[in-house]
Amino acid sequence: MSHPTDALTRFYGVIPAGGIGSRLWPLSRADAPKFLHDLTGSGQTLLRDTWDRLVPLAGDQRIMVVTGRAHRAAVEAQLPELADHNVVLESEPRESSAAIGLAAAILQKREPGVIIGAFAADHVIKNAAVFRQGVREAIAAADAGYIVTLGIQPSEPSIGFGYIKSAEPLDIAGAPTARSVASFVEKPDLATAKQYVASGDYLWNAGMFIARADRILEEIGTNEPELLAGLLTLADAWDTPERGAVVDRIWPNLKKIAIDYSVAEPAAAAGRLAVIPGQFDWDDVGDFASIAKIHSGGRKRDLAILGEGARVLSDSSSGIVVSHTKRVIALIGVEDIVVVDTPDALLVTTSANAQKVKAVVDALKLSGSSDVL
Questions:
Q1: What pTM, to 2 d.p., does this model score?
Q2: What residues are paired with 286 via a beta bridge?
Q3: How large is the angle between the packed helices 95-110 and 213-223, nearest 10 degrees?
């Protein structure tokens, strides 16, 4: 086993930047997904924030971004340091197993023994130094042969996240807080979530995975052999003139499956998954209620206002207003409201119903109203 410092030198960051964030419509669109927005008031997009968190760990030449062909120009504009050979373009979305698996296959072919860490482009993380310490522990555990996830200490019994049940501590040099994982649990109902949080044995699943690339590929091959075969074919052609033709032939036929199901769940069942409890604030910004919470510091009586030049008048109101127009928006005596005003679409709902915005997007697709998606 190598020294933890040696393992860090073999680390490569991977940023999957896909998905349109349909619960953030009409702000997030197919041509401007949520990772290309500043949703925290930091002055930077979520993608740029993610990059900046990883550079101190990996360096700007050891970060790969997996994104859609349509987003290449926007991604490269946000990340001018991103090396051309570290841009992996998807011809169409095929879920996280394909995106992360392809990155693993390419990097393993280029650099056998590489350790990769996959971190979504659209998450909000505070306490970046604490986050990086957790990743360093995860890298040490990955070097020991585990597939590792960062679990988040629950701040409330949320029904919007999956949960990780942690088990006994693992004796791994460089990873003092690492624990084995007993199981992954899908999004529970509220009563079950309350039990999980009260037990102290469960962490939120934030979807951050760190492992040797060969271990990820091995796990995919055990559970989804056809998917692995396609990924290896793509990796063999990736740094050759045949890449385009092979991608067009192979990529659209890859199975759509989340990495939770192809890697994490079976690895947990086999005792090959470890978790590092994260002591940092984290949010996946899954809906407008999440954004309101970030901007109000959890104070439900506050009204969060986003948008340069937003013109909002408020009297005894709370929630969030996102304005990308010059329209005056007046709120009087409404609580936990969500108003999103764009030039061609207006959304009005409540924080309690914020998760249902995806159903509106689905209905617009069915009605053929693709011009606002």
A1: 0.91
A2: none
A3: 130
